[in-house]
Amino acid sequence: MKNKKGNNGNVTLKEVADALGVSTMTVSRAINNKPNVDEKTRERILKTANEMGYTPNLVAKSLVSSKTYSIGVVIPEISHSFFPEVVKGIEEIANKEHYQIFLTNTSEDFEKEKKSIEALRAKRVDGILVSSSQTEEDFSYYEKIIDSGLPLVFFDRCIGNIGASCIGVNDFAASQQITEHLINRGYKKIGYLSGPKKVSIGKERFDGFVAALNKHGLDLNEKWVTENGYNEKDGYHAMSTLLKLPENERPRAIVAVNDPVAIGAMEAIREAGMKVPDDFAIVGFSDDIRAELMPSPLTTVHQPAYEVGKKAASKLIKTIEDNTEPIESVQLITKLIIRKSCGSS
Amino acid sequence: MKNKKGNNGNVTLKEVADALGVSTMTVSRAINNKPNVDEKTRERILKTANEMGYTPNLVAKSLVSSKTYSIGVVIPEISHSFFPEVVKGIEEIANKEHYQIFLTNTSEDFEKEKKSIEALRAKRVDGILVSSSQTEEDFSYYEKIIDSGLPLVFFDRCIGNIGASCIGVNDFAASQQITEHLINRGYKKIGYLSGPKKVSIGKERFDGFVAALNKHGLDLNEKWVTENGYNEKDGYHAMSTLLKLPENERPRAIVAVNDPVAIGAMEAIREAGMKVPDDFAIVGFSDDIRAELMPSPLTTVHQPAYEVGKKAASKLIKTIEDNTEPIESVQLITKLIIRKSCGSS
DNA sequence: ATTCGTAATGTTAACGCTAACATTAATCTG
DNA sequence: CAGATTAATGTTAGCGTTAACATTACGAAT
After folding, report:
1. Which residues does A304 contact at the CB level (< 8 Å), separation at least 6?
2. CA distance A204 to A209
3. Strand C bases, protein C-beta under 7 A
């Protein structure tokens, strides 16, 4: 409205230069604190640039430097309390290093995930941080991405051994540990509410569960294992299925792939008129913000979400800024949080 | 690792053109589905471009068009359950319209907010979506932004009458309504845990509270009003202060500016060995994911967070794409959620 | 065939900026 | 004070793309 050119009312280097009768290079040097500019000239330029409301055009700068100081973040579901914490950590580090983050939510949809990544790539982000909704079936997509040289760090849900770093937690061990906690409390009939095993965490946690059973000589009862999604409604649905079994064929304890699923399952149990832990002991994973508030506070595995975010961002930025940065697989330490839902006092 | 040029392994239009012996314009036309390209040529080009792994460089495109298809989103605290829902709505609409979102978290820090916006502006985002941590004291910063012509839409926390649209809820009326609910239940000694009044929601909600008192001829007792932040610890701290009053000088009911504050306050009450609603009735605002799970489920005001996000994004995009789009102040409808913390049966 | 009209393709310049080289002005040196 | 340094400034070209104009090709109409 107050501007002639197409640059949306933004002042350009050249305009500042013309206003002062110097060359654009001198202005560029002055503004970017490059050497070989007379101190007086620099001050004059800075003053005028400021008065004119000059803001550097990073788009143009990026075209020259092929560096955007933007990183893409691909998340399966922002409304899970785990992810906002992760994002907070990512944002904090990115910001400190003068990067901005593009956030995309895929709603656990691999197609949407791929589309988002294409969009990010077209925007020439310097790298991407991905928690994938499909890590086990078809690697080819990510193999291509990594091959193309786009710096990529997985977090939480990783694809292993394809040349990208991974920042997660020890899902296998933690899942085994929490299952063993149940076993040690005397439960023998233990069911498992799984998420899709095409996702690393789905597979790892399930494997940890099975390992715990094996270690203690317990059998895996296929009828007690369901595979659904990662949300409350999935847990509700899965538990409803188990509740349809004749009473004497039901498990006595439940391990859920994550807290939302556990919370959904608890709802199904409550609706069926039964109680946690009296009728069913149950444990989750992730220490959702709601976990301790449940009618029967949920025993779960606490994940250091904020730390995962910080570590992932810092690893990505290192990888971007130094291509000799080694590929690394980091497993942050989880903590078993024992509450009442498993029947502990 | 497999590339000669500086373009980070990205294939350029010119490279595709050279590979086929045509001009870059022809390739550009073919790829962008412009008319006047022979069908056979187009197919040949598309095929080769695909084989070579061509991805358009949006940075270059943006420089030409001065349009980035990026929007900035400025949020005070992503870990509040309200905001991830909003972001989800924003992302959904933005994505549908082929925009990407830059997410920044300001941690309620106005200085950080300004820095983020400068960074977004330098990146030449097409517009910004802001929930500001300071909406009442000094408008000059945002006046300058709006004056500069950068499309801006506020959400949740707005600055009114300075030329930007605002998507929020009717904080005043909802706060008045929930306070009246308390009054109607017979409470007369009502305290208020406020957030900073330099933020619109802080002011509006407090004013609604006062209006309800006035309407029913109740006095505002200054000693029962505290002003802190918007988080759990702030609520805890504020309530602790009230609890230091001699027993007969304490309020009997509490209105909290939002749910996190109410939840913090409930914790303080519990630690003091008292009960909700028996010793203190309490109500919140925002319908946090934890509200219904509290030991005494929290009566609160439900805000349509997801809708706020969708509406804000769509308003911003309309404003970006059509500068005759009118400035608008939208108040979405909240819903009073009555649970047990206010003493209702 | 010649001319014309349109479809297909090409060329140039520009978006805002900076690296690299070129020039000019200021400062030394003996 | 001439000649040589060095500091300050300027000029050119190019990052990848597209708008605008220029040229060429080709089938249709005479």
Report:
1. A169, A332, A333, A334
2. 9
3. 7-12, 14-20
**CA distances (Å), origin B244, targets B122, B262, B281:** 50, 18, 17
Q: Over chain B, what is the mean pLDDT?
A: 94
Per-residue confidence band for B136, with pLDDT thresholds at 50, 70 and 90:
confident
CATH fold group of domain A13-56: 434 Repressor (Amino-terminal Domain) (1.10.260)
pLDDT band at A265 (very low <50, low <70, confident <90, very high): very high
Sheet strands (E) in A48-203: 70-75, 100-105, 127-130, 152-155, 165-169, 190-194
CATH superfamily, region A171-303: Response regulator (3.40.50.2300)
From chain A, the residues in CB contact with B62 under 8 A are 59
Residue A31 CA and nucleotide C18 C1' are separated, in Å, by 12
A9 CA: distance to closest CA in chain B (Å):
7
Strand order across the beta sheet in which B127-130 lies: A329-332, A165-169, A152-155, A127-130, A70-75, A100-105, B100-105, B70-75, B127-130, B152-155, B165-169, B329-332
Please say if the pLDDT value at position A2 is more than 80: no
Average pLDDT over residues A215-235: 95
- To the nearest whole Å, the CA of A158 is away from the closest chain B CA by 23
Longest CA span, chain B: 90
CA A82 to C1' C3, whole Å: 74
- Partnered with residue A128 across adjacent β-strands are A72, A152
* Least CB–CB distance from B119: residue in A88, A100, A149: A100
Q: And the tokens for A323?
A: 């291509």
Residue type (1 letter), B20: L
Cα separations in angstroms, B73 against A71, A76, A190, B77: 15, 19, 45, 12
Upper half-sphere CA count for residue A256 (Cβ side, 13 Å): 37
| pTM of the complete model | 0.93
Confidence of residue A83 (pLDDT cuts 50, 70, 90): very high
Query: Do B171-303 and B67-168+305-332 have the same topology in CATH?
Result: yes
Cis peptide preceding B56, ω within 30 of 0: no
Is the CB atom of residue A28 positioned under 7 angstroms from any atom of strand C?
yes
Gap from A3 CA to chain B (nearest CA, Å): 9
pLDDT at B325: 96
Q: Is A275 helix (H, G, I), strand (E, B) or coil?
A: coil
A329 DSSP 8-state letter? E
Binding-face residues of A in 69-108 toward B, CB within 8 A? 70, 73, 78-79, 81, 83-85, 87-88, 91-92, 95, 98, 100-105
* Closest C-alpha among B211, B209, B290 to residue B254: B209
Q: State the residue for tokens 């193999």.
A: A143
For B91-127, what is each residue's pLDDT tens digit? 999 999 999 999 999 999 999 999 999 999 999 999 9
* pLDDT average, residue stretch A23-34: 95
The second-level CATH assignment, the architecture, of A67-168+305-332 is: 3-Layer(aba) Sandwich (3.40)
Tell me: pLDDT of A3 over 80: no
Query: Where exactly are the structural domains of chain A?
Result: 13-56, 67-168+305-332, 171-303
Q: B88 and A100 in contact by Cβ < 8 A?
A: no
Chain segment B179-200, per-residue pLDDT in tens: 999 999 999 999 999 999 989 9
pLDDT value, residue B4: 42
